[in-house]
Specification:
It contains 12 helices and 12 strands. β10, α10 and β11 (about 330-335) form a beta-alpha-beta unit. It is an alpha/beta fold. Bound molecules: adenosine-5'-triphosphate and magnesium ion.
Length: about 375
């Protein structure tokens, strides 16, 4: 597990840089040639493939529990209700989806809502693939009190949990399959249909969130996957926040100092910044960047990579720059870093994970 963790974070860092270049340039190419259908026909699948690559990296990090989570206080039954239309759209009409939630009682968890939605979508797609003709998928939300034996099965401490059951009446699994389904890249699906990362990712995410997961399956009968999640106790002290964050302020025209050691990444980010109406000066390392901040009074935004050659990394640069110039807006862009861990006890900066779109960049520029 540790080896896979190290491997995937290493891959993530390099691949996210490469994907930033691929996705960013293809996006600009398409944006600049809106009427050239031949170009769009060729570039769009390449862009989609780049985005799939980014998702794959995300899933790999998620499996090895290395992904930075963004937990929020949410009501799990509301999340399920909200995502139901999307789940239904991923099912053919021969498969029905039923939602059962216990008596409207709120099920408050502190969890990364986006990851939970992804996990649900994965489970629904698995259930769909297991149903060859018509069938039924049921999502049940409830609370569960786990005694010692049950808690052991879920690999969690005994106590109360939020539970999510996803059941299907598909073809089920033999025990030798069940024992392998959380392995990364284990799939029984044809090449191109499944990467075998869905459940390993779900497993990693659930464990990282303090929960557990259990599979029951009967060949020919169907499968039930149960996820238990810790109940968030501090409710209602902390406010339940919705998912949709809107870009706020626009800082068009303000000078950006872009610090990035990879030339091609720097070039595409510069182009994106210029498209968003920002003049840009560039630097390849922290010490030079610090000199520029001291010399060029007009710099109002610092957009910096984290891992760079030289004695200082981007985060240290950001801290020093902020002390020197408190009005500076700072955005940290990282190919891979456990943002949750590293931001404890430190001033928090707006962060942007590579690869990112122009829209995400615009959002970060407004938020910083
Ligand atoms: N509900 C289910 N019923 C029957 N078999 C299942 C079910 N869920 C998972 N499996 C089995 O577990 C395997 C691994 O599932 P997993 O979601 O990890 O990968 P995948 O679906 O094959 O590919 P990916 O999710 O990456 O597209 C599947 O290939 C399938 O054999
Ligand atoms: Mg799957």
């Amino acid at each position: 597990m540790e080896a896979i963790g190290q491997l995937s974070s290493g891959i993530a860092h390099d691949f996210n840089n490469l994907l930033t270049i691929i996705i960013g340039n293809l996006n600009l190419l398409i944006d600049k040639n809106p009427t050239n259908t031949e170009l769009i026909e060729l570039a769009s699948p390449a862009l989609d493939a780049g985005k799939r690559g980014a998702q794959l990296i995300q899933r790999l990090l998620s499996f090895s529990r290395q992904q930075p989570l963004k937990p929020k206080v949410i009501d799990v039954s509301t999340l399920v209700a909200d995502i139901t239309p999307l789940l239904e759209r991923s099912l053919p009409s021969r498969i029905k989806l039923a939602i059962e939630s216990k008596g409207g009682q709120p099920l408050i968890a502190r969890i990364d809502a986006h990851q939970l939605e992804n996990a649900l979508l994965n489970l629904i797609v698995n259930a769909r693939d297991a149903i060859s003709e018509s069938g039924l998928i049921v999502i049940r939300t409830d609370t569960k009190i786990l005694n010692d034996t049950e808690a052991q099965e879920f690999d969690v401490p005994a106590g109360s949990f939020i539970s999510l059951d996803i059941s299907d009446n598909g073809f089920g699994m033999e025990p030798d399959i069940v024992s392998r389904i959380f392995e990364p890249f284990f799939t029984t699906k044809d090449f191109g249909r499944g990467s075998g990362l869905g459940l390993s990712m779900t497993y990693g995410f659930v464990k990282q969130s303090g929960g557990g997961i259990l599979v029951r399956s009967e060949p020919g009968q169907g499968t039930t996957i149960t996820i238990v999640l810790p109940i968030h106790q501090d409710y209602p002290e902390e406010q339940v926040i919705g998912e949709s964050e809107q870009p706020t302020i626009r800082r068009e025209g303000q000078l950006v100092l872009l610090v990035e050691d990879d030339a091609a990444v720097r070039e595409i980010v510069r182009k994106q910044l210029m498209e968003l109406g920002h003049p840009v000066i560039e630097s390849t390392n922290a010490s030079e960047a610090m000199r520029l901040i001291n010399q060029v009074a007009d710099i109002s935004i610092l957009l910096t990579d984290v891992i760079m050659p030289g004695s200082q990394n981007g985060r240290e640069l950001a801290q020093e720059a902020k002390i020197r110039k408190p009005s500076l807006h700072v955005i940290i862009m990282s190919g891979f870093e456990d943002l949750n861990k590293s931001e404890i006890n430190r001033p928090t900066f707006t962060s942007l994970s590579k690869p990112f779109t122009k829209k995400q960049l615009a959002f970060a520029l407004g938020k910083a």
